[in-house]
Amino acid sequence: MKPVVAIIGRPNVGKSTLFNRITKRRDAIVDDLPGVTRDRHFGDATWDEHDFIVVDTGGFVDGDADPFAGHIRSQVERAVMDADAVVLVLDGKHGASPYDKDLILWLRTVPKSVFYVVNKIDSPEREDQMYDFFALGLDKIYTLSAEHGYGVPDFLDALVAVLPKGQAAAESQEIRVAVVGRPNVGKSSLINRLVGEERMLVSDVPGTTRDAIDTVCQRKGHSYRLIDTAGIRRKSKVDLKLEKFSIVKALQSMDECDVALIVLDAENGITEQDVKVASYAFERGCGVIFLANKWDLVDGKSVTPHKFGLQLYDKAAFLRHAPLLTVSALTGLRMAKLFPMIDKVHQQYISRINTGVINRIVNEAIQRTEPPLHKGRRLKFYYTTQVAEKPPTFVTFVNFPDAVHFSYQRYLLNQIRSGTALDMTPLRLYFRQRTGRIEFGKWKKNKPGKKSRRS
C-alpha cells in the first residue's frame, strides 16, 4: 500500500493549497473563508518516483463557534493516526498562534514523523518571517509558498526520504462511484454505511459536505473509489460563491466516474431537483443507479417500490435503463445488494460488442422495420461498429445520416439494447456518412458527435 501523509493546521493557513500543489491537481476547494475543508480529502501524489497518498483536513481549532468543530477535530485526529507522516502548516504571513502551540504539544505525543512547514513565504527576502516559530521550540522548519511553489521541492525531498517504500498493489480495475443528489438526502450516511466507519460528517444541516471526497474500499477482490459530493441545489437557491464551487466539483465528479449513485429521499418523494440531478448524470454519459434512501420511513401500505419506480421513470424517462434500489443507510436495509448492482452496471458500462454481432442486430432490426424514404430514396445502413466504451458507443454509416428520424434512432437503440443485453447502461449511437475512415480518438466520454442519440 502507498504511504499516507496528513496535512493539518489551523484554519486558513493554506493546507488545501499545499494539497493541490503536492497532488498537482485542483481537487481541494481553496477560498479565503476559514473552514472550507471539513472532511478528510484524499489525493494521490508522486515525487522523485515515490508514490504516496496526501490527506487534506479541516482547520483544527479548540472552542470554535463552528458547530462542526468537534467533528472536524475528530477527523483530524483520525487522519493523523492513519498517517505515516504529518505536515503541520503554519501561517508565515500572520505569525504564530496559541493554537499552533497546542497542536505542536499534541504532535509531540504522536509517534509519527512530523514536518513543520511555514507557508506563505514566497521569496528568500521573506525567510526572516519564520523566526517567530522557533520560539515554539521547533528545531527544523521548512519555509515555502504553496501558492507559488517556492521551497516546495526541498520540502518534498525531505518528506519522501522518511516515507516507507510503498508496495505495488496487484493491478485491478478501480470502479469510480460518485454519490450525488440534492442536499440532505443521506449521501454521506450512505458512504459511512458502505465503508463501515464514520468517514464523512453527517448532519441534518443541508450543505454539510462541501467538497468531493474520495474513499477507497475493497469488496470481494474489487476496488471501489466512492466519491461523496456536495448536495446539488437549484441555482436560485445557491448564493454563496463557495457552494457554487462545491456544485461544480459535484458535476466534475460525474464527469470522471463510472457509476453515479443518485440518492433520493424516499420519505419526501421525487422532486424536480432530483430529476435535474439525474439529467446531469445522463448528459455526462455515466452509468446510473437510483437509490431511494430512507425507505424505513416510508409507509409501505401507500408507497411500494413498484409505485415509486413508476413515478420515477415517468419523470426521468431518459434514464429508464437505470436500476432502482430502495434502501436505508440508517438501518442497512438492502444495502448488501448495492455492490453487486454496481458491478453489474459497471460491467455493462465497459462492454465491447463484437463487430459481427452488432451488425447482425442492426441488419435484423432494419429488415423487421425498414427505414423511411428520404426524398424518394431509401436510407441505406452500410456498416455498424463500436468505437468506444464507457459508455458503449456505436457508429452506423448511412447514405443520408441527417435524414434518420429520431424515432428510428430510438428504435435502433432499443434493438441494440435488447440484442446485447445491455439493459442497465447508457448507450450512444451516431450516424455518419461513409468515408472509409473512422476517427476513433474523437469518441470519448462527454464528446457527442453531430448526429447522435443517447439512451
Describe, in plain words, how this protein is organized in 3D:
With 455 residues, the protein is an alpha/beta fold. It is elongated, with a radius of gyration of 26 Å. The protein has 12 helices and 18 strands. It has 3 domains: 159 residues, Rossmann fold (3-Layer(aba) Sandwich), CATH 3.40.50; 176 residues, P-loop containing nucleotide triphosphate hydrolases (Rossmann fold, 3-Layer(aba) Sandwich); 100 residues, 2-Layer Sandwich (GMP Synthetase, Chain A, domain 3). Helix content is 30%, strand content 22%. The longest helix has 16 residues. Strand 13 and strand 14 form a beta hairpin. The strands form 4 sheets. Strands 2-3-1-4-5-6 form a 6-stranded mixed β-sheet, with helices on both faces. Strands 8-9-7-10-11-12 form a 6-stranded mixed β-sheet, with helices on both faces.
